UniProtKB/TrEMBL annotation:
Keywords: Amino-acid biosynthesis, Asparagine biosynthesis, Glutamine amidotransferase. GO terms for molecular function: asparagine synthase (glutamine-hydrolyzing) activity. InterPro entries: Asn_synthase, Asn_synthetase_domain, GATase_2_dom, Ntn_hydrolases_N, Rossmann-like_a/b/a_fold. It holds the Pfam family Asn_synthase. The gene is LOC108741533. Residues 2-182 form the Glutamine amidotransferase type-2 domain. This is Asparagine synthetase domain-containing protein CG17486 isoform X1. PANTHER family: ASPARAGINE SYNTHETASE DOMAIN-CONTAINING PROTEIN 1. SUPFAM superfamilies: Adenine nucleotide alpha hydrolases-like, N-terminal nucleophile aminohydrolases (Ntn hydrolases). GO terms for biological process: asparagine biosynthetic process.
Length: 559
């Protein structure tokens, strides 16, 4: 993982202005990569560039210094390659993904190289042969990249800082953006499958830049998931699961080969997604990175005790050395020093289930207790800048909760993990929100389908980049197994009633996210499998229920 930064302007402008631009983002960039930092300056035709990068070493036998420079260009990469969509070469996790990708770029071209890589990324690449600056994010938008503009200066960066004369937006993950140095114009080569809100997001970027963007390869299709109404016989099985005895309901579903096969396939895909995200990292923790021996925790799980994180913790155990503990990080907020929050209670309950299911594992249950004074202090000092350019009450609550959780520190322990597994994407994929129940009730199956699609299309623009920024500030990497390409492709091609059944005649805690609940039960969870959905901001008690989540948070506004 890395922090990447680029600023550029015409050479007749003072280079001191570019250095000030770098200073604006320098601390946030360096925090993302504690293992290595570098800054370089370049001139291309009549433009002057400053590139800065910080590196958190996670792939390859040795740390790869960035920017990577060759005769063809300068490359900065913040991402992971977990595998390839095509048999272009044998995947070798011991090799630097950055160097591997750079070779692909020079042999196949930037678009072809990035299109076959599975894993999250953002990147900046100055191609001196074509005189173009390329930059962008992966199709799901799992890594942050912002673009800022002031007069004739530009900044492209992983994180920025609130400042009155600069304005930034999150670059939407539409494809590969390019700036043609000779023509002084922006271009976009869209990813193969466009999102449904592609045109809207492109117009937002054009409006921000006050410039038209030349769209290349406009033949690309939209990523369309077809909807059909369920057949009567497909819904008949749900008539048998209206009992209050959840376990008998699941045993009935497991007796149906077609249903059980879906649960089994989901388990296989999630196991592989977790395996890759646990295995692909150095064998030394953040405290021992340059030592020869380490037995500390390498991997942590953001742990509320709900089914999403319970499944991740269980699978993490299967691919982690028994000599190492796994950190289960549980965050709570209080104005009165009472930290017995709903998430603390479910976290401790599910911890007991994990101990029974994985008796040979040492689990570090890390209780993070945050007072109102500490919350306000760190929000003003650091977190508000990381959340920026987002600014709602919901961004405030979730961003702060995740920042303190990712810090993983209390009075007696500081997490040593370099990788933090989180359950992001599970509610969007498996239908875990209350609005999904409302959509089914008021608009039927088509309404539920549209609600799930809207949530999926908006996920990159609402959560993922913000969460990447706040977690990475601690030199840890956010990894999201539910957003693995193979998991996503499987789940999104299921009919919506095969993912979730939030009907009023099925009790809450069972019908919603029904497929994932079945998997949790199959793995051995008898309590966590039936816990009702509870959002992080409410389970940790950071949120004020009297505030509207969509309103601008006055606590994030620069005074």
């Amino acid at each position: 993982m890395c922090g990447i930064f680029c600023t550029f302007t015409e050479q007749n402008c003072s280079q001191c202005l570019l250095l000030e631009n770098h200073k604006l983002c320098c601390k946030a960039i360096n925090n993302r990569g504690p293992d290595f930092q570098r800054t370089i300056s370049l001139n291309v035709n009549d433009l002057h560039f400053i590139f800065a990068v910080s590196v958190l070493w996670l792939q390859g036998k040795n740390l790869t210094e960035q920017p990577v420079q060759t005769n063809n260009g300068t490359f900065m990469y913040n991402g992971d390659i977990f595998d390839y969509t095509k048999e272009i070469c044998e995947f070798d996790p011991s090799e630097s993904d950055t160097l591997t990708l750079m070779r692909f770029i020079e042999s196949e071209g930037i678009y072809q190289a990035l299109s076959v890589c599975n894993g999250p990324f953002s990147f900046i690449y100055l191609d001196t042969q074509s005189c173009k600056l390329h930059f962008g994010r992966d199709h799901f938008g799992r890594r942050s990249l912002l673009i800022g503009k002031l007069d004739n200066m530009f900044i492209i960066t992983s994180s920025a800082k609130r400042k009155s004369n600069w304005e930034f937006i999150e670059l939407p993950p539409l494809g590969i953006f390019s700036y043609d140095i000779n023509a002084k114009m922006f271009e976009l080569t869209a990813w193969e499958k466009k999102s449904e809100n592609f045109e809207q997001k492109l117009k937002e970027v054009e409006s921000f830049l006050n410039s038209n963007i030349n769209l290349k390869d406009q033949h690309n299709e939209k990523q369309k998931i077809n909807f059909r109404l369920p057949y009567k016989e497909e819904l008949n099985i749900f008539e048998q699961i209206k009992s209050k005895d959840f376990e008998s309901n699941i045993r009935f579903l497991f007796s149906l080969e077609q249903w059980f096969s879906k649960v089994t396939l989901l388990e296989r895909l999630l196991r592989e997604a977790v395996r890759k995200r646990v295995h692909i990292q150095p064998k030394e923790c953040s405290s021992c990175i340059f030592k020869k021996e380490c037995h500390h925790a390498l991997t942590g799980v953001l742990f509320s005790g709900g089914i999403d994180c319970a499944i991740l913790a269980f699978l993490c155990d299967k691919f982690s050395s028994k000599e190492r503990p796994i950190d289960l990080i549980n965050v709570a907020f209080s104005k009165t020093n009472n930290y017995n929050t709903p998430d603390r209670e479910t976290g401790l309950s599910t911890l007991e289930e994990l101990k029974e299911l994985c008796p040979d594992r040492k689990w570090n249950f890390v209780e993070i207790n945050i007072s109102e004074d500490k919350l306000n202090e760190k929000r003003n000092q650091v977190i508000a800048d990381l959340i920026y350019p987002l600014n709602t009450v919901l961004d405030d609550s979730l961003g702060c909760a995740l920042w303190f959780a990712a810090r993983g520190e209390n009075s007696t322990y500081r997490s040593t993990c370099r990788v933090l597994l989180v359950g992001m994407g599970a509610d969007e994929l498996f239908g875990g929100y209350k609005k999904h129940r409302k959509a089914l009730k008021t608009e039927g199956w088509l309404g539920l389908f549209k609600s799930l699609e809207d949530d999926w299309q908006n996920l990159p623009h609402r959560n993922l980049a913000r969460d990447d920024r706040v977690v990475s500030d601690h030199g840890r990497q956010l990894r999201t197994p539910y957003l693995d390409e193979n998991v996503v492709n499987f789940v999104r091609n299921l009919n919506c009633w095969e993912r979730t059944y939030p009907a009023d005649d099925v009790l809450q805690g069972f019908g919603e996210k029904i497929l994932l609940r079945c998997l949790a039960y199959k793995l051995g969870f008898r309590k966590a499998a039936f816990l009702k959905k509870r959002a992080l901001q409410f389970g940790s008690r950071i949120a004020n229920s009297k505030e509207n989540a969509r309103d601008i948070s006055p606590r994030l506004v620069l005074s």
